[in-house]
Design goal:
This protein is α+β, with helices and mostly antiparallel strands. The chain contains 9 helices and 4 strands, in the order E-H-E-H-E-E-H-H-H-H-H-H-H. It has a 4-stranded mixed beta sheet with strand order 2-1-3-4, with helices on one face. Strand 1, helix 1 and strand 2 form a beta-alpha-beta unit. The structure holds glutathione. Glutathione binds next to helix 1 and helix 5.
């Protein structure tokens, strides 16, 4: 298995955690997103979207979109399961994952931040305010749901790790990078810290990847 990723990428982080939990070896090549290498013709030939991760299991074309890759890994290596078997619990785990991966993360990826600043002449601190707003919106949704819905257990969905936790953790580590206040989200914090204390998560952590700041 082979993946194009980036140390800071929340989407690649989610996939790395699943690979670690399932004991799958994957060679990762880092694309420099700050340098714009995702838009070079040679990378666009791999993923025309100009985004990581792009994941290969054998021949191409690669799989893209972290949630689709997580589903693929679930299909080829069902154990340990990262989605519950009960249909409602499974849908809830996916719903929590999608709050992060579909409705929060896309609002702060580099291409959105760069476009905001260049097309609308928004200064960097204004752009960071935009990013923090959407982080807070996503975290508040997670906190409200996790604190009040009966499906929450040790983890976001029950007492087994699921895609919801992989996504939750990928958002949580971004709070440090983007200077987002974390005190209002104690349930998210409890689950994130529990996960990050485990080897499969810790080894996948952005700051443990090549290219990350010391
Ligand atoms: N929805 C996609 C997001 C992919 C994505 O936007 N990845 C970011 C890094 S986390 C990226 O490569 N961004 C490049 C850019 O925005 O220019 C997924 O979950 O895989």
């Amino acid at each position: 298995m082979k993946m194009y990723g980036n140390w800071r990428s929340a989407a690649a982080f989610r996939v790395r955690i699943a690979l670690n939990l399932k004991g799958l070896a994957c060679e990762e090549t880092f694309i420099d997103l700050d340098a714009g290498d995702q838009f070079k013709p040679e990378y666009l030939a791999i993923n025309p979207q100009g985004a990581v991760p792009a994941f290969f299991d054998g021949d191409g074309p690669p799989l893209t979109q972290s949630l689709a890759i997580l589903d693929y890994l679930e299909d080829i290596r069902p154990e340990p399961a990262l989605l519950p078997s009960d249909p409602k619990a499974r849908a809830r785990a996916r719903s929590l994952a999608q709050v992060v991966a579909c409705d929060t993360h896309p609002l702060y990826v580099p291409r959105v931040r760069t476009y905001l600043m260049s097309a609308y002449d928004i200064p960097k601190d204004g752009m960071m305010g935009f990013v923090r707003h959407w982080f807070e919106t996503g975290l508040k949704t997670l906190e409200t749901r996790l604190a009040h819905e009966p499906g929450t257990g040790r983890y976001a969905q029950g007492d087994a790790i699921s895609h919801a936790d992989l996504c939750l953790v990928s958002l949580w580590v971004g709070t440090g990078i983007f200077g987002v206040e974390t005190a209002p989200y104690p349930t998210v914090k409890r689950i994130a810290e529990d996960c990050l204390s485990q080897e499969a998560f810790a080894r996948a952590h952005p700051l443990r990847q090549p290219g990350a700041p010391a």
